[in-house]
From TrEMBL:
PANTHER family: CELL DIVISION PROTEIN YTFB, PEPTIDASE-RELATED. Its cofactor is Zn(2+). Residues 74-150 form the Opacity-associated protein A LysM-like domain. It comes from the Bacteria. Residues 169-285 form the Csd3-like second N-terminal domain. GO terms for cellular component: cell envelope. This is Peptidase M23.
Length: 339
């Protein structure tokens, strides 16, 4: 009875909301709804629902690869001079088909240019099938190829070295380079220190015995072994009883420069020395005797001598106004500073 009452209210609402010419059509639709709604249902024909527990493995592909990785037989080959992918696969007792499958994979092009010193590690199953190939470019970068049915997929792996701060100090006895070597400083840090303070100190004319320096720098390690020397973090140099300090700072854009303790840039308008390694072959002298003509001719400049290939820096920002070759100057570049 409750169902019939609800349907009656529904029909009355239709009568109020619809025009008279639509009542006939509405009545037919309502009659069909009532017939369907009130018709008896056969509960015996309803399908039975059966619940069964289903075991779902949550083991990921990476875990499966790790398990497979531990069961492989490994061999390692160092890339030598004249080696290519085919010769290395031959040496490891793998077929030309393996070479084709891995070199034709989406990232297999990287294996076409191998360099001496790089390493290939081959992982084979118990039946001798190549399952993994590790292309180790250097201690920090590698590319790993995994067999996926009849092809290979690859992933890049990059390791971060452990950075440890180291400290060195020393006293100048003869030259900056020799004193730095006595303090067990690598060449890279000696040159970097000269570049940092080269805006304030001329390491040819200004340096004196008794000057001192101190460096705080990065040492990079991987698996407990020293990988390389990093950047200078902070430095101090005392020249003629005047102390200069520099601290490395990296801004939000990733650009790194050196600043004083007051926050001023170490870079000045002009460099004091334009070369890292050099000797002065001829200084500024208004009364110099010309080495060839044996006549007094003014030498309005300073000549630096350095090994072939030594970088030469501009003394400051400027505009190249001329470049070329002459018998007097050799290869030359004229730079105009300021206006």
């Amino acid at each position: 009875m409750r169902r019939v009452s609800e349907i009656g209210h529904f029909l009355l609402s239709l009568q109020r909301d619809f025009p008279r010419r639509d009542l006939l059509l509405g009545s037919l639709i309502a009659a069909l709804v009532v017939a369907v709604y009130l018709s008896p249902s056969d509960n015996n024909t309803m399908p039975a629902l059966i619940a069964e527990p289903i075991t779902i493995s949550l083991e990921s592909r990476s875990e499966l690869r790790e398990e497979d990785h531990q069961q492989l037989a490994w061999q390692e080959h160092l890339v030598g001079r004249g080696d290519n992918l085919s010769t290395l696969f031959q040496r490891a007792k793998f077929s030309a088909k393996d070479v084709y499958e891995i070199s034709s994979s989406p990232k297999g092009k990287s294996l076409r240019n191998l360099y001496p010193g790089e390493t290939l590690r081959f992982g084979a199953s118990d039946v001798g099938q190549l399952r993994e190939l590790h292309y180790i470019k250097n201690p920090l970068e590698s590319q790993v190829f995994f067999r996926d049915e009849d092809s290979f997929v690859a992933e890049e792996r990059v390791r971060e070295p452990e950075v440890i701060l180291s400290y060195r100090e020393g006293v100048i006895e003869d030259s900056l380079y020799l004193s730095g070597k006595q303090s067990n400083l690598p060449d890279k840090l000696i040159m970097e220190m000269a570049n940092i303070f080269g805006w304030d100190i001329d390491f040819v004319f200004d340096i004196r015995p008794g000057d001192s320096f101190a460096l705080l720098f990065e040492d990079r390690f991987i698996d407990g072994k020293k990988l390389s020397t990093g950047n200078i973090v902070a430095a101090s140099f005392t020249n003629r009883n005047k102390n200069y300090q520099a601290v490395r700072y990296t801004n939000k854009k990733g650009e790194s420069n050196y600043y004083t303790a007051e926050g001023l840039s170490m870079r000045k308008t002009f460099l004091r020395t334009p070369l890292d390694i050099f000797r002065i072959s001829d200084g500024f002298n208004m009364r110099r005797e010309h080495p060839i003509h044996k006549m007094i001719r003014a030498h309005r400049g300073v000549d630096y001598a350095a090994p072939r290939g030594t970088p030469v820096y501009a003394a400051g920002d400027g505009k190249v106004i001329e470049a070329g070759y002459s018998k007097a100057n050799g290869n030359y570049i004229f730079i105009q500073h300021g206006q």
